[in-house]
# Entry
Amino acid sequence: MPLRMGTFWTADPPEVDVDPEQLAREAVDRMLLTGPDIASPRAAGKYVVGVPMWMWVTESPTTYGPNSASASLGGVTVTAKAQVTKIDWAMGDGSTVTCQGPGTAYTASYGKQESPTCGHTYTRTSASQPKGKYTVNATATWTVDWQVNGAGEAGQFTEIRQSQAQVAIGELQVVR
# Structure
């Protein structure tokens, strides 16, 4: 008897095993999340030992959030929402600073006061560092909340993204 080839149709498609957290991670990949967009310290800025440095980042959906995206597979759709919940700053001089928000932008009217939200005061110059600058690393912790659309299943995970800047710290001396 000859073998017969053909198409078989069924009303019930085969079940697909869907991992909702994996779908949430695929949604996060679509968000194109990056490290913080460091507004200060600026590479071209002038910073001085003993004077408070204000640190802040420029907020956008890909650099700070909020951001959201969805992914689907086998009839299951998951929506993920991401937001930076903290930024850890490694200042290059051995100090670290953790900021719970984007920081406060500095204006000259603040004078030499400390930042109310995110700052650091260097105690020595960067003259001994490569190229005479400290490397500042800003590490953002993104908190991702996800939920299966139309169902009660939900969860949370974190994503880490990093940026860096170079900053020169000088010293002022009074000459009499």
